[in-house]
Amino acid sequence: MRPLFSNSAYFHRIVRTKRFNSRDACKAAGDSVKMDTAMGLSIGYVSLPVQQLGWTSNLSFIQAKKEQLSLNYIRLDGNLAYALNEKFYFKGGLNGTKIIGKEGESLKTGYDLQVGVGYQVDSTIFELGYSSTHFLTELPGFGMTVSALELGVSATF
After folding, report:
1. Which domain of life is it from (predicted)?
2. How many other C-beta atoms lie within 10 A of the C-beta of residue 45?
3. Do the bridges between strand 37-47 and strand 31-34 make them parallel or antiparallel, or are there none, so unpaired?
4. What is the pTM of this model?
5. Phi and psi for 24 in degrees, rounded to 5?
6. Among candidates 46, 71, 42, which has minimal Cα distance to 59?
7. CB 128 within 8 A of CB 98
8. Is 37 helix (H, G, I), strand (E, B) or coil?
9. Which one of 2.40.160, 2.60.40, 1.25.40, 1.10.3470 gives the CATH number of domain 2-156?
10. Half-sphere exposure for 3 (CA within 13 Å, toward CB)
11. Backbone phi, then psi, for 50, in 5-degree steps?
């Protein structure tokens, strides 16, 4: 098991959704926003035994911006992982995310999943992943989904 510190770039897409009784109505009503920039910092633990089931866990602070819109959120994730060898691994798991600040006041904590693949060089890990989080709101029938392609560089110590 190794402590992990990570600096990541995120490519976010935020989709506001409304729940309807028909798929066609939902498709017509939904719209999306692609964020211009998103960066994050994480700290976590990894256990990646070669050719055995391992795990990873991270606590992340992420900031996404587009013009005047800025979203700050905290995400806790836990993953099962499998290392093919000492260099390559795959992971997948669940996350819980809370948007902080006034933008998140009407949103409940979001839950969803993420998957990723990593490559380790000495004490540095390069990781490419995809995450998605769905938030419910205080208003019945409305929600928001945040999805992101993530590129991370981590240092173990």
Report:
1. Bacteria
2. 14
3. unpaired
4. 0.76
5. -60, -40
6. 42
7. no
8. strand
9. 2.40.160
10. 3
11. -65, 130
**CA separation for the pair 42, 57 (Å, rounded):** 10
The answer to whether the beta carbons of residues 67 and 21 sit under 8 Å apart is no
Over residues 88-145, the pLDDT tens digits come to 999 999 999 888 887 777 778 888 899 999 998 888 888 888 888 887 776 666 677 7
Task: Write out pLDDT tens, residues 27-66.
Answer: 444 556 677 777 888 888 888 899 999 999 989 888 888 7
Q: 136 is written with which tokens? A: 């419910």
Cα of first residue to Cα of last residue in the chain, in angstroms, is 10
Helices within 30-151 (DSSP H only): none
Owner of token pair 């960066």: 39
